[in-house]
Specification:
The protein has about 140 residues and is mainly alpha-helical.
């Protein structure tokens, strides 16, 4: 049997996700535990298990971080994102930002975004053409 790659190492993912490894874990070790210097970390690999754990922060918490990298607690706090919260903080934040990300608001951003992108591309294209004309040799 092939040795288990280190799923806590970024190098394991350099050529993409190790799909065969995850398939083997789903089949043979659906709740895989890895010993790390900081302690054990678990990897749930089956949808039903993830679904069962979701919403049970006493069993599966994102509040202690979602990145597998060396960082101090102060660095973690400085880089902490919305995904790194558990109930009730997670729900309170969702309620605060829900209106800003509603379908009508997001749909209303489409036209200004497209206009901005087109304007930016046209400006860059014109600047590139102008630069090209200035640096091209004169035809005699």
């Amino acid at each position: 049997m092939t040795a288990m790659p280190d799923l806590t190492s970024h190098d394991t993912f350099l050529n993409g996700a190790p799909h065969n490894t995850f398939a083997r874990l789903r089949r043979d070790d659906p709740m895989h535990w890895t010993e790390r210097i900081e302690g054990r970390s678990g990897l749930a690999t089956r949808y039903a298990d993830i679904h069962a754990l979701n919403g049970k922060p006493d069993l599966l918490s994102s509040a202690r971080g979602i990145r597998m990298e060396d960082q101090s607690y102060e660095e973690y706090l400085a880089r902490r994102t919305f995904q790194e919260t558990d109930p009730p903080e997670h729900m309170m934040t969702r309620v605060k930002v829900a209106k800003a990300f509603s379908k009508p608001v997001v749909a209303g951003l489409r036209r200004p975004s497209v206009t901005f992108a087109r304007t930016s591309l046209i400006r860059r294209w014109r600047r590139a053409r102008l630069t090209q004309r200035k640096t091209s040799p004169v035809n005699c």
